[in-house]
Each structure stands twice: as C-alpha cells, then as structure tokens.
C-alpha cells in the first residue's frame, strides 16, 4: 500500500513528540535533523554506501584541495546575482529581492565568501535534465546565481518567487517554495548547503524535509522575513534572511556537523 500524506503526518507528529520528550528529560537541543529521520524516505538514498576515504593531511595539508574545484573572484560576472537578467527576455513570475548577512557565532560579518543559490522557476520546475515535474520550463530563467559577501557580510540576489513542486517521497508530497543556498569558506571542503523558505507557507506542516529539523526555533531560522525596505518600487518584493555559520543560533545545514 503506497505511503500517503496522512501516514507521513503521523510519523512527523511522533518524531516531534519524541524529540520534545528527550529535551524534557534533559537531552540537548538538536539544531540539526537526525540522519535516520523516517518521514523523509529518500534521505536513505543520500547516505554514503562506501567507507569514507582517509586523506593523510599530515603528509600534505593541501592534498584535499588538489582534488577540489577552484574558485576566484574574477570568475563572477556582473549579472550573476540577478537571475532575472541572465537571458534575452524577462522571466515569468513575481520578482523578489533576497538579501541578508553571513555571520559567525558571535554575530560578526564573514566577508568575501562565495554564496550560490539555485531554485525552481515560478511554475515549480528546475532547469535540469533529470527534472520529472511536467510543469513548463521558462527559457528566460535557469534558476542559478552567485555572489560574494561584502565588508558587512551582506549578500544580495534578485530573482523570481519559486513555485512549490511535487516530489515522490509519498503520495501527495509537495515541497514548500524554497531557495537552496550554498556557502563556501576559504576552501571547497568547507562548503555548507541549506534552504531558505518563505513566511506563512501552508505546506510547512506537510514537508518532511523541513520538519526533520525537529527543534522549532531552529526550524524558524530557515524562514525569511518580509522586509519592505528591500522591496524595489514597482519591481520586486523584499525578503531578509541571515545565515549563521555556528553556535546556538546556527542555520541548519543539510549535512549537519
């Protein structure tokens, strides 16, 4: 019998109740989801199936970097942070401005760091050859951008409001609208990946990926706030979202720590 949304709802409720009991009994707050979070069925497919490869950094501290992509500031183009003008025509959908700061655990800005984003278009479809959703593609929107944080740790993107989309975790599974964020440190091996959501999305309670962050405060840190000061008159609505790299207010990342 296929797994339904009602089945997943019960599993999410049970996982949250179990977490609250653990905390009440003295267990530490869990800012990141457990890898065996049952409602997120396809997470099993993301687990490593082979032993980790050990690298002897004592022999050569830079050995890891020799097998990782390289990136320089000169690789950024002028329009990389504006996903609405990367093609000859205008993309379809509501234009939005997303901005915030990259911060360390003490609230200090992290400067000169690469932030990449990728997202579905306004119809909820990714411009990817393995995409299976039959919503229309937008020839003027490929859904990827990047920027460097400035002296205040601030980033800035112009894009379109992504649409929700179905996925095959269970019958009736829909993902809330979201934007994927990738943050690089000084090396590729320091990469963190997370997701930003939009306020008041009715799909929040039904999404096992978001609900796998069982701590409510940590989950709320993934939701942007509407910021009218970021809105561009007659052009876009503005959203503010800070990314905190570490500490008790850290932003959830997909691989945890």
The name of the CATH superfamily reads: Aromatic compound dioxygenase
Order of helices and strands: HEEEEEEEEHHEEE
SS-derived structural category: alpha+beta
Number of helices: 3
Determine and state the CATH class.
Mainly Beta
Number of strands: 11
* Fraction of residues in helix: 10-25%
Tell me which CATH architecture applies here: Sandwich
Overall number of structural domains: 1
| Percent of residues in beta strands | 15-25%
Pick out the low-confidence regions: none
Span between termini: 36 Å
CATH topology assignment: Protocatechuate 3,4-Dioxygenase, subunit A
The value of Rg in angstroms is: 19 Å
Reported for the largest beta sheet, the result is:
5 strands, mixed
Shape: globular
Mean pLDDT: 89
Keywords: Dioxygenase, Oxidoreductase
Pfam families: Dioxygenase_C, PCDO_beta_N
GO molecular function: ferric iron binding; protocatechuate 3,4-dioxygenase activity
Domain Intradiol ring-cleavage dioxygenases: 98-126
